[in-house]
Every structure is written in structure tokens, then in C-alpha cells.
Amino acid sequence: MTAIYVRQSRSSNSSFSSCKNQSGICFDFAQSRNWLIVDFYSDEGVSSATLNRPELVRLLSDIEAGEIRRVVVYAVDRLTRRLLHLQQLLELFERKGVQLHVVTDPNYGESAATRLTSNIVAAASEFQLDLTRERMAESRLALKSKGKRVAGRLPFGYSADPRTKKLIPNPHQSRLVFEIFQLASAGGVPTYIAEVANLQKWEFHNNEVGKWTDGRVLSILTNPTYQGRIRHGASTLPGEHSAIVSCEVFNSVQDQLKARRTLDPKVRRPPRSRNPYGAKMLGLVVCGSCNRPMSTSVSQRGSTRYLYYRCRSKSQERPPCSGVNIQAYELEGFVLERQGHVEDTLSIIPLEFRGRWRALSAFEQSNKLREVVMQVIYDQSGNQIVINLRDDSLTILDAHE
User: Fold this and answer.
1) Which of 312, 347, 351, 390 is deepest in the core (most CB within 10 A)?
2) Which of 119-123, 177-181, 368-372 has the lowest mean pLDDT?
3) What is residue 342's predicted lDDT score, i.e. its pLDDT?
4) In whole angstroms, what is the distance from residue 60 CA to residue 190 CA?
5) Are 238 and 229 within 8 A, CB to CB?
């Protein structure tokens, strides 16, 4: 019961490196000795760095089952180039009574000198592999020290120069990356930013529209490439490519992300912000048609963003009111101004409150808005806005004074 094992590395300078050539030579070798060949095991294009190769695993399994008594290989390094792995294989063969035959060394295993030579060859092969890895690591470090890109997938927002492979900002994608960092620096969490990206159907990859997720947004926000640096282990090095965002913006975003994390499971994480644009009356504005809270939404025309209050609630098993929306700054400006409007005789706002409200600066009014307003009812169909103050609104203003 003879098995033939062949392997072809991803790169090899041997004239007999192909699995087909090895199989033919091993077959002729076994036939010349009238051995019965029961199976071929071929790991084509598989490195010798590990014993976890599909066909080698199958071979070892058949050996453990007692189905193989003889293994033929073209050369020892087709089995492995590592001395430790070779020792493990030889111990298994000896324990199971399996003979190993090497075509390039017909007398392999018959003398102590042969076994010593094989161990030396295996050790030399392992040394060569380690030396190659060290040289490749040194080469990558030399390239990184000059700010050059070594390899890897192109980060979203960049293209690669066909000749030098240098990263070049992609005009459209880099604008989206810049927008993501702007949203994050304003307090937007990755989940919210992903919602905005999907709502506006931002490009996902190669001019395709895909599903943005908080994980994808987070991978962009934490990538130092966008501030003009390249990764090197746990640190970064200056890159030769152009940055998309400034170091100040990038570091500000990292500080915000870090503030939301906690390593202690007993410490409650801070709630995620659902109001990254600072809508002054989020949660206070109610749709006059259905009496449900209105939420915020964002649209963009060119470089300008527009924030709206919209009826988008699906509670009470009813769809949102179609077309009910108002620009946030218009509604907020109206409420701020109307609360101190002395000439408005139809308003339900007390005159005493109006007078004290007018005495506040615009900045103080903006900060106190959420404290004194209980509810703002926006009735688009009737073109009416009703402002309801808290019962203790005067007390709040007195505390301010």
C-alpha cells in the first residue's frame, strides 16, 4: 500500500517543481519496484510553512488509520522545510511502521549519516525561509520610513498611481471621507453617520451604492491614512501621500471615540448622541397632524447641509405624515423670537415671561430654550405653531438671574 505525496510552492526555481512532474517521477520510481500505489496526494500551490495542508492532512489521517505502509516523495523538502515538522512526521511514520522513500535519495533513512544529512538540509531550508522573512520585513520598513505604501487594499477615498502605487485622493470619495470626519467631529456617532450615508446614497466602493454600517464608518474614522500617515505596527509613520483631514480634526475624533469606550464592564458607557447637529428642540417638537414627536433629518445641496424637523414616526402602527417638515433653524428662530414678542396679544406666553426673556442675550436664550419649553406643536396643514412653556419656566429664569 504505497502513497505518493507531491507539493508545489507558490514560488519555486526547481525544474521539477510542478506537481505533475513530481507525480510522474514518483510513479515511475514505485513501478520499478512493483509497489501497489493506492492513492496520490497533491498540495498544489501550498506553502510548507505549516503541516495544515489539505492533502497532507488527508495523508496523515490515512496513515493513522493504517491504510498506508509506504510514502514516496520526490524530495524531503516536498514534505516540509522545517526541522521540527520533519521530526514530527518521522516520529509518526516510525510509530505507524510507515517507510519513507525519497526519489532523489534512494538510500534515504538506511544510515545514520543519511538521517543527519536530512536534518541538516531541513535546518538549512528553515534558516533560508527565516532569512527571507527578515529581509522582506527590513525592505518593508525601509519603504515605510520613506513614507511609501507597501501593500494592502486601497483605503476608501484614495486611488493608486499606476506607476509608483502612491496614494492619490479620489475627488469624490475624499469629499465623502471629509464629510464623515466633519460629522464625527460635530459629535455624530458611527451609527448615525451610517444612517446619513445610506439616506443620501453615498458611494460605497467603485461608484457603487452599498449598505453603510457603523463598523465601516468606524474603520474610516480610526484609519491614520486620512491624516497623511501610514501604519507601522502599533504606531504610525509620516506618509508621502496627501492627507484628507487635518491632524487636529483626526485627533479630535479619536478623543471622542475613546471617551465612548470603557474597559471596565462595571462602568456604564455614556449614551450615544442622537443629536450630532445640536438641534435645539429635538424631542420637543410634535406633529400637529398626528400628535407624535418629530425627529431630525439632514439633506445636502453642494457643500451646504440643511437640518429639518420631520414627521417620521411609525409608532401607534401608523405611517408618518407625508410631507410634514420644517427647516430646523427657521422653527428654532421663530420660537426664540416669539417668546419675547411683546406685541403678540394672541400668544399664550405670559407677559412677565416675555419681558424677562427679552432681557437675556441671544446666547443665553439659546442655552435656556430646552429648559423653559415643554412642547412645540407644528401644524403644517393649519400653518400654526403653538409654544407650550413649562409650569416652572419663570422659576428657571429667576434662577438664572
Assistant:
1) 312
2) 119-123
3) 59
4) 49
5) yes
Supply 333's cell numbers: 428662530
What is the DSSP pairing of strand 295-301 with strand 229-232?
Answer: unpaired
Please give the grid coordinates belonging to residue 297.
433629518
- pTM here? 0.37
Residue 372 contacts residue 389 (beta carbons within 8 Å): yes
pLDDT tens digits along 23-53: 888 999 998 988 988 888 888 888 777 888 8
Contacts of 294 (CB under 8 A, 6+ apart): 285, 286, 287, 309, 310, 311, 312, 313, 324, 378
Regarding beta strands 235-238 and 229-232, do their DSSP bridges make them parallel or antiparallel, or are they unpaired?
Answer: antiparallel
Give mean pLDDT, residues 70-87.
82
* Distance in angstroms (rounded) separating the CA atoms of residues 340 and 397: 13
* Short-list 81, 82, 80, 71, CA closest to 109: 71
Give the 3-state secondary structure percentages of the chain, helix then strand then coil, rounded to 5.
Answer: 40, 20, 40
- What is the average per-residue pLDDT within 234-262? 83
- Residue among 115, 104, 118, 119 at smallest CA distance from 73: 104
Q: Which three cell numbers stand for residue 113?
A: 549519516
User: Measured between alpha carbons, how far is 59 from 57 in angstroms, rounded to an integer?
Assistant: 5
Q: CA angle at residue 99 from 94 to 101, to 5 degrees?
A: 135
